[in-house]
Amino acid sequence: MKFSKSWVMEWVRTELSDNALAEQITMAGLEVDAVEAVAGQFNNVVVGEVVECGQHPDADKLRVTKVNVGEAELLDIVCGAPNCRTGLKVCVAKVGATLPGDFTIKKAKLRGQPSHGMLCSFSELGIDVEADGIIELPLDAPVGTDIREYLNLDDVSIDVDLTPNRADCLGIAGLAREIGVLNSVDVVEPTWTPAAATIDASFPIRVEAPADCPRYLGRVIKGLNLQAMSPLWMQEKLRRGGIRSIDAIVDITNYLLLEYGQPMHAFDLAKLDGELVVRRAHADEPMTLLDGNEVKLKETTLVIADGKGPACMAGIFGGDRTGVSETTTDILLECAFFAPLSITGRARAYGLHTDSSHRFERGVDPELQHKVMDRATRLLLDICGGEAGPVIEVKSDEHLPKASPITLRRAKLDKVIGIQIADEQVVEILTRLGMQVTTQADGWSALAPSWRFDIAIEEDLIEEVARIYGYNNIPNLKPAASLAMVEQAEGQVTIKRVRDLLVARGFQEAITYSFVDPKTQQTLFPQSDAIVLPNPISVEMSAMRVSLFTGLIQAVVYNQNRQQPRVRLFEQGLRFIKDENAENGIRQEPMLAGIITGNQSDEHWDVKSRGADFFDLKGDLEAVLDLTAEGGSFSFERGEHSALHPGQTALVLRNGEPIGHIGVIHPNLEKKLGLKTRAVLFELELNRLVPAKVPLAAEISRFPANRRDIALVVDRQVLAGDVLAVIKKVGGNQLVGINLFDVYQGAGMADDKKSLAISLTLQDTQRTLEEKEIAETVDNVVRALGEELNASLRD
User: Fold this and answer.
1) Under a CB-based contact definition with an 8 Å cutoff, are residues 77 and 134 in contact?
2) How far apart are CA 98 and CA 42, in angstroms?
3) CA–CA distance, 584 with 541 (Å, rounded to integer)
4) N or C: which end of the chain has fewer CB within 10 A?
């Protein structure tokens, strides 16, 4: 929202400087982005009148003029502007004047003709207006008056970045109210002669969607002269508010937009057919906008239609068919209140964002329409002439917003702000904000004004009191708190320990979006039924993730595309699964996932380079599982996963229950996903990982350990994990260590066999084991392996 300081000062007087005012409203929550002068620095430029204007004898495009600037003699000035003519009031830079850019006006001769000054255009005075030729001032402009004084150019435009809840300040009226409250100054609203109806002209209006449009006003105005120019003061106020002057009707509706924050629209009465109906659009109903673009309307879009179809996209954009043109003499002026939710998001659906939709989406004062309609009518009649009919109103009291009293407790106010503000000051602040305040035993009851529709709960009132009192006026006090140890179960693995471990093993934590590309997710999980967002940020972020794999793979691709060949990432976050039994039909599950690609280690002269494989990531994952102090409760089994290699995928189990997967990315997916090298991934259900065993101290055995190695011949399809499981089951308490240290397949071994070399470590905590006991244990292990897995000792 950009506004002219001088315009605001017409409503509320304050002696604050430009920067002081900007700082004050910023500290009150209305952040100022910029304070800019409305014109460049110049001097000695006055109002002049062209008394004579003739063709230059030696130049077709130059004119020789005599200009009256209120001095004894007329000034001879050569001008090249095409709009220079006799009787025109102009801006004259006299000899000695300095214009923006340190350009000094001197006496000169142009093609032999004397020129003692310059007739100025807007750009030559540093005024941001698109116009050809010199400035044309009103005919009643007093000759000789300094132009800075006449146009009030010692002014600034202040650009305020408003938060969505402060739509009441999207107009001069709201800003003036705010400044008045901050400075305890009364706001003086402009007055005008009411525009009473002088003709009986009317037009039928019907509202089919009262919930979307609780109040709709229309007024017929006939006999307008659209050749009339908008007055210079209006053009200047519009310019300083960031709006270009177009024609009288558009300028007046834009003027009211800036003054009160109320959008309006004018229809050419002669182009309307039948009655005007406020309704929802039909599916794919065509409409041509004022800018010439044709759109297919959606059923959620509110339109204002006549017998031929949509005439306006309600609260967003006017239609070309019923737009006002140079030949228009009669109009139907519209001023309505549209419910914010009926406009929110509709403009963006068509790639639009207008000043009107910006205000209606955030909310407009529902009690403002009659005042603005009368103000606009008076301006139209004064500038363009004509006669006005009565105001036509269609409203639904049932759907108009209604404020409810809000209770503000003294104890809650003091607790949140941290200091005690006097009762009288609290009442004054709330009253100046336009609220009806009633004092109660333990606080106050306040009824918010119609323009403050963002105030609904007690915390809103506390915020208003605090910001008007002044955040800078609240003293800085050191917080006092009694610290206490946070209770935490010892038998639980914290996510911090998991993060620290993975970082120590060379991983980096990634944080990816919960919204993913549905095509990528479908590639990885063809059977998934993902949740699709109704209003996504983009098409590539329109589905909720069913796994962390999608985001991690895209992060790896992003890094590989930037010459990062070795990537090791992990992420902890939620996945989103459809579940009818869950709240809102969505089950949110915390997950832990990791991915590695590239070489196992960084390049080094003394380390042989090799690519990371399944067992590298499995080792990292086992280190995480060991944090539970129950490493034995976890196991890996051959598994299947739509995104992973069918021969290099394992199911991760805890006490026999599956909790996740680990494996190599499916080779058919590497190119589809953009991966340049093989990637290995894992994903676990975090809630199934964190329960841990509380470690118990145990005495270290003082007796020697004994190692025995056995070499077993087993069928190729027998898993080493199954062999180790049998040994653990049979070995008993004296078996304290077991390790597979060699696997052999090749010469001297049948094609369907393999050799596994395993070391067994036996030890007792109470005595030294005898050879007989050790041999008996080893024999029991070999016998059990032969019975269960058809294993035999290798010769």
Assistant:
1) no
2) 5
3) 21
4) C
Give the containing element (helix H, strand E) for 756.
Answer: strand 753-762
pLDDT per residue as tens digits for the range 512-567: 999 999 999 999 999 888 889 888 888 889 999 999 999 999 999 999 999 998 99
Rounded Cα distance between 234 and 240, Å, is 10
Q: In angstroms, rounded to a whole number, what is the distance separating the alpha carbons of residues 52 and 54?
A: 7
DSSP readout, 163-183?
-TT-GGGSSHHHHHHHHHHHH
The answer, as to whether pTM is greater than 0.85, is no
SS3 731: helix
- What tokens were used for 438? 């009633």
| Cβ neighbours for 666, distance < 8 A, ≥ 6 positions apart | 642, 643, 644, 645, 646
- Distance of alpha carbon 366 from its chain centroid, rounded? 27
- Angle, helices 410-417 vs 458-469, to 10°: value is 50
Q: Distance between CA 281 and CA 316 in Å, rounded?
A: 14
Q: Across the chain, which distance is largest between two alpha carbons, in Å?
A: 135
Alpha carbons 677 and 597: distance in angstroms, whole number: 7
Mapping DSSP to helix (H, G, I), strand (E, B) and coil, where does residue 598 land?
A: coil
**Closest of 440, 441, 445 to residue 408, by C-alpha:** 445
User: Using 50, 70 and 90 to split pLDDT, how confident is the model at 159?
Assistant: very high
Q: Are 296 and 286 in contact (CB under 8 A)?
A: yes
List CB contacts of 676: < 8 A, sequence separation 6 or more.
Answer: 560, 565
Q: What is the pLDDT of residues 363-383, one digit of tens each?
A: 999 999 999 999 999 999 999
Q: How far is CA 328 from the centre of its chain?
A: 41
